[in-house]
Structures are given as C-alpha cells and as structure tokens.
Amino acid sequence: MAGILEGIRVVSMGQIVAIPAASSLMADWGAEVIKLEPLTGEMHRGIRVAQGVQVGPVNWIMHVLNRNARGLALDVKQPAGRAAVYKLIERADIFMSNYERNSVRRLGLDYDSLSKLNPRLIYGFVSGYGKVGPDKDERGYDFTAGWARSGMMYMIGEPGTPPAPQRAGMIDSAAGAHLLAGILAALRQRDKTGKGQEIEVSLFHTGVWMLNMDIQNSIGGKEPVKHDRTKANNPIWNSYRTKDGRWFWLAMLQPDPSWPGFCRAIERPDLETDPRFSSIDARRDNCVELIKIIENILATQTMTEWERRFRQHDCIYGRVQSPMEVTADPQAIAAGLFQDLEVPGAGKTKLVTTPVIFSDNTVSIRTPSPELGQHTEEILLDLGYTWEDIARMKEDKVIL
Questions:
Q1: Which residue of 202, 237, 308, 353 has the lowest C-beta tally within 10 Å?
Q2: What is the pLDDT of residues 44-70, one digit of tens each?
Q3: Are strands 122-127 and 94-97 parallel, antiparallel or unpaired?
Q4: 171 and 296 share a domain?
Q5: Please, how many CA atoms are within 13 Å of residue 134, restricted to the half-sphere of its CB?
C-alpha cells in the first residue's frame, strides 16, 4: 500500500525539532521530503549533549526527526543557491521553516516571495511568539516561549518546589503536529480553490493551548491550583509509592463509580461505606486522612502485585516508567512504537515511530537521516542542472 501523502513534495528548511517533527510525519506517510540545510548544517548536527546525555558518533535525534528525507545543502545567501531553491519551490507543494522570520525574509524565502513563484504553495512557519505583537521578533525555543511563558512551567510540580524544566522538544513536537494539521487543511482548501496559503504556529500559542484548562479558568477569574499529592481533592486521582519503591498514578476521574472497586482492590471494603469517605464530597473534605491511609496500604506490596489487583478490579492506573523501561514495554513493542532500521555506523537499531496509523495506507521508516548534503547532486540533476553546472557551484562554494 502507498503512503497517504504519496505525490506530495515538501521542502523542509527546519532545524532542531519543530519543523523536522512535522516533516518526519509527512515523510513517514509517503511524502517526498527534501531537507534543506546551510553548508554548515542545521543546529542539531552540532549538538554534543542532549538532555544530559553525551551525543556519540551516531546522532540519534537526527535520525528520529529527519528519516525518510533527502538531504540538500546550499548556500542560499548566494544568488546561485537561492536560484536552486526557487526551482524547487516551483514544483513543491509545501515549504516549511522555523528559522528566524527576519532571516527568512532577508534570504528571499518568506511567503510573499515564494508565493509569487508558486501560487499553489502551502507555506508552514513555526515561530516563538507569532507574527504580530511586541515580541513577534523575539527569539524563542520551546523551553522559553512554549514552556516558561505559557504558564506550563509555573503549574508543573508540587507546591513550594522550584519550577520544573521540560524535556527536550516536548512543545516543539506538539507545535509540529499542529502545523501539520494546518498544512493538511490548507491542502484540502487548495483542492477547492487552486490557491495556496501561509500557516503559522507559534510555540507560545501551542503552550497556551496545551494548558487550555488552566488558562481558561484564569480567564474566568479562577486562580489555577497546583497539584499537591498530600491534599489531592480526589485521592484516587493521585500518585502513590509501592513497597519496592515504584510509583503509580491512579486516574479515576469519576471517583464515585470507581470507589467500590478500588476499595476491593486494596482489600479495604470497609472504606467504601465509611462516612468519612463514602462520597466524593466526603473524600474531598477528608482527603489528607484518606491519602495517608492509601499510602500506607500501597506501601505493603510491590508494583507487580498491585497491578494484578488493579486490573482485577478495573481500576484505572498507570505505572511510572523510565524511558529505558518504555523501550522494553511489551505493549509498546506490540503496538509498533518502534521500528528496526539499518543506520550507518550503528547497524540495525530501533527508532521511535510516528503515532498515527492508517487502515488503508502504509506508515514506515525507510531510510535514516541524510548526511549533510547527501543528495545535493541528485536533486540538482532532477532540477535540470548539468554536471558542468554542479562543478561550477562547487567551485563557487554554493554546494559542498
């Protein structure tokens, strides 16, 4: 079966996570993606430490976010390099970038410039703060524009603790998914009108949308409350530690229907009718006492023992796993969250797959991330350049 985006041509001038995350989804779904980079390579190629882990000879993040693409390295500051990009744009469906807006404009790769070459072009752009407002030209990563400024960093963590940093690329990845949704909607609109358009997603707006429940409460004048596990209003929507030092998150959002089964699971049926805990209001009023009771009970058995009982009594829970444990999780493996791929310098290895599955179309990782400029000559030949043209471009340092 063909990929659902087969026949769609994408020029992706992205770096780090947001744009590569969007283009990797499209490439996995069958689109033809060309990764456009400067001769020095995008920023991620130069990162030596990622989330405290030393990057070895194989840059795994590049392979996760840039697989299935062909690599084109050009000096677009030179007229010859920009002319090659313009040839690509004339036949492309989509152009995407998350470079600084002013830089893109100076290079002649803004929407106004490219839409004149190709009125059908869908132009996707990810920025820190959006295209209007006092901070529209401020630089911003997902840690700053998406995590810190959106309110997310303020709300995550227990009361009285320092604000927690996010993990790398979290809001970037979400912004990439939002951008892809907008691009697909614009492609649908183009089917009706024959005209392309520009789509913009900001990291700031993405973070606010991800925190929409707290933000909306704030709009209504209600101060959001941080989760305090010792005083959780719903004690069976909370975290608890087991005998072997593992943690669970209990997630019974409808506490009254779930309460009898949970009491049976922890072998305390008396708690079900105890007047201190027999209703949602009573459990809220006596939450500190109940949480201590549940803590003491769950500390008597191991995670494995409690999992068996939780499943037996239909309790909703999640065990807190490390990323290393996730890679060996039987459910993750069975559900296809990883795919084996032959990676140069590393041999066969697993890469994280994109999360959308189509019933009638394939989704697959076919090739690893391209080396810097790996397909430059091939792409230029496709555009009608001759070997003499390519030799001249190398002499002029337009290409590698």
A1: 308
A2: 888 766 666 667 678 888 999 999 999
A3: parallel
A4: no
A5: 0
Give me the phi and psi of 241, to 5 degrees please. Answer: -105, 145
* Closest to 63 (Cα-Cα) out of 44, 50, 46, 39: 44
Which of 41, 49, 53, 54 lies closest to 14 in space, CA to CA?
41
* CA–CA gap between residue 396 and residue 39 (Å, rounded): 12
Q: CA 106 to CA 121: how far, in whole Å?
A: 19
Query: In the prediction, which pLDDT does 173 show?
Result: 96
* CA distance linking residue 68 with residue 3, whole number of Å: 12
Please name the residue that has the structure tokens 């401020």: 138
Residues 35 and 165 reside in one and the same domain: yes
Domains in the chain: how many in total? 2
Determine the pLDDT at residue 109.
98
User: Per the structure block, which two tokens stand in for 236?
Assistant: 């069976």
Mean pLDDT is lowest, of 52-56, 113-117, 225-229, 250-254, for 52-56
Do 165 and 24 share a structural domain?
Answer: yes
Between β-strands 53-54 and 49-50, what pairing exists: parallel, antiparallel or unpaired? Answer: antiparallel
Contact status, residue 109 vs residue 13, Cβ threshold 8 Å: yes
Question: How far is 346 from 364, CA to CA, in rounded Å?
Answer: 20
* Residues forming the active site: 172
In Å, how far are 9, 74, 90, 200 from 94, measured between CA atoms? Answer: 6, 18, 10, 13
**Averaged pLDDT for residues 18-25:** 97
Range(s) of the domain holding residue 275: 229-241+247-319
Please check whether residue 2 lies inside any domain of the structure: no
User: pLDDT tens-digit profile of 314-329?
Assistant: 999 999 999 999 999 9
What is the reported pLDDT for 1?
A: 77
Would you give the DSSP letter of residue 380? H
Q: Is 10 helix (H, G, I), strand (E, B) or coil?
A: strand
Say if pTM beats, i.e. exceeds, 0.85.
yes
CA 95 to chain centre: 19
Same domain, 193 and 237: no
